[in-house]
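Shipment paperwork, digital attachment
Item: protein structure file
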Amino acid sequence: MTEQRKSLQNALDAEHAAVYSYGLIAAYANADRSRLVAEFSAAHRARRDATVELLEAEGTAPDAPRAAYTPPAPVDDPIPAAHLAVSVESDCAAAWYAVVENATDESVRATATEALTDAAVRRARWQAILGAVPVTVAFPGRA
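Attachment content:
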């Protein structure tokens, strides 16, 4: 398997985890954030589906999602839910950053750059909700 395919599979894994996690986030997020959570959840579902199509177009059968994903910390009210969202978006940004680095195909690199940007913007939105300063980092997705 090429590095591009491996990194695409890792990005798909991050998107699967994001879709799962946004279900948990939705259950505990502040009620006035339900529209935002629904929008971000839909974005991850669309990115997940597009990534499956990318892998299949390369002749790779994507790995199935795990049955469940364990959050990095317990989620039982809106603040931990928002922190989980930051974590999810950080993980997605890191995964898509790796695709940008490993892409050999220009269209895959463009898709990955868009996905990285989207995750960074969503992360910044959650950071702002949490009152973090600064809300973003200079190079989203980098360790």
